[in-house]
Amino acid sequence: MKPRSGPDPSASDRLRPLDAAARVTDDARGDSGAPPPDPDLVEAVDRDDELRIYSLRAVDRVVDLVEALVQAGAPVSLSTLSSSVNLPKSSTFRYLAALERRGWVRRGDHGTTYQLTAESVLGGLAPPSTPRLDRIVHQARPLLGQLCQANQLAAVLSVLEGAHVRILWLELTPSLRRLELFTTTDRPSPFMRTAAGRALVSQLADSVVHRLAEEVAAATDGTADGTTGWTSGSAPVPSAPDWLAGRALVRDLHRVRGDGFAVVDHVISGVAMRSVAVPVPGTSVALSALGPSGEVPPPRLPALVRVLRRAAVLLARRTGEP
């Protein structure tokens, strides 16, 4: 066998294309030895980075808006907010709309101003997001039916939205239904006009309640028509205009806070009515019993309060509240 003295030219020729390809690959890898980046992957990563940066920027803008509303401490117009956070009005409107849907922001009576809801200012009450309220209403409906039938009074579920209270669900007795008293249940009422409103604001800090009362007074020229007076337990307290005064407000607020319930005497469609309400723990909603004043005499109040409290605790448990 003839010994081989050098490389086989034919083999070298066969390997040369592979060597050239390897050199090209090594040059592309560089010193790190990593494969060259996929252009499509690079574009995707860049796009993800852009989205991440945009998301962070959106969060910053929302926080800026919330801080601007906190600093204002009063209803603010869209143009003022957009100027204070250095955003176009269109962007400011979209962010405010998202906050409004989540229950953190609400519009003023004429829809031209914005402010934080009492719940978001407090932190003690969770903002009333729609899915959460839907869950509460779903669990409350059978309880309201039982309360209505057992007490022969209207049973009401209400939510606090800023300085106003809105009825979420109402169960009526046949006699109350015939009277056709409740034709505007979807219209929010100033919190001091309802027992539910007063029970709910008693959970708020005094300073927050003062601000809410001033907002209502400014919108109603210092009055709260429709409320003739109200009681906590059996003790009478001033009428609505006097109640808005500083000392009376704090005194009666503390009384409701101590009692854990509120009672309001008012007139609905010319009929003297009395309602008693308790807050549902951990929420911005309240349960109320409502009927003609003659059917809700003071001696009956303690028993009604006990029933409402049991129902409120049960509702809180069923909806996963503490």
TrEMBL record:
<dbReference type="InterPro" id="IPR029016">
    <property type="entry name" value="GAF-like_dom_sf"/>
</dbReference>
<feature type="region of interest" description="Disordered">
    <location>
        <begin position="1"/>
        <end position="43"/>
    </location>
</feature>
<keyword id="KW-0804">Transcription</keyword>
<dbReference type="GO" id="GO:0045892">
    <property type="term" value="P:negative regulation of DNA-templated transcription"/>
</dbReference>
<dbReference type="InterPro" id="IPR050707">
    <property type="entry name" value="HTH_MetabolicPath_Reg"/>
</dbReference>
<dbReference type="GO" id="GO:0003677">
    <property type="term" value="F:DNA binding"/>
</dbReference>
<feature type="domain" description="IclR-ED">
    <location>
        <begin position="124"/>
        <end position="321"/>
    </location>
</feature>
<dbReference type="Pfam" id="PF09339">
    <property type="entry name" value="HTH_IclR"/>
</dbReference>
<keyword id="KW-0805">Transcription regulation</keyword>
<dbReference type="GO" id="GO:0003700">
    <property type="term" value="F:DNA-binding transcription factor activity"/>
</dbReference>
<dbReference type="InterPro" id="IPR036390">
    <property type="entry name" value="WH_DNA-bd_sf"/>
</dbReference>
<protein>
    <submittedName>
        <fullName>Helix-turn-helix domain-containing protein</fullName>
    </submittedName>
</protein>
<dbReference type="InterPro" id="IPR014757">
    <property type="entry name" value="Tscrpt_reg_IclR_C"/>
</dbReference>
<dbReference type="InterPro" id="IPR005471">
    <property type="entry name" value="Tscrpt_reg_IclR_N"/>
</dbReference>
<feature type="domain" description="HTH iclR-type">
    <location>
        <begin position="56"/>
        <end position="118"/>
    </location>
</feature>
<keyword id="KW-0238">DNA-binding</keyword>
<dbReference type="InterPro" id="IPR036388">
    <property type="entry name" value="WH-like_DNA-bd_sf"/>
</dbReference>
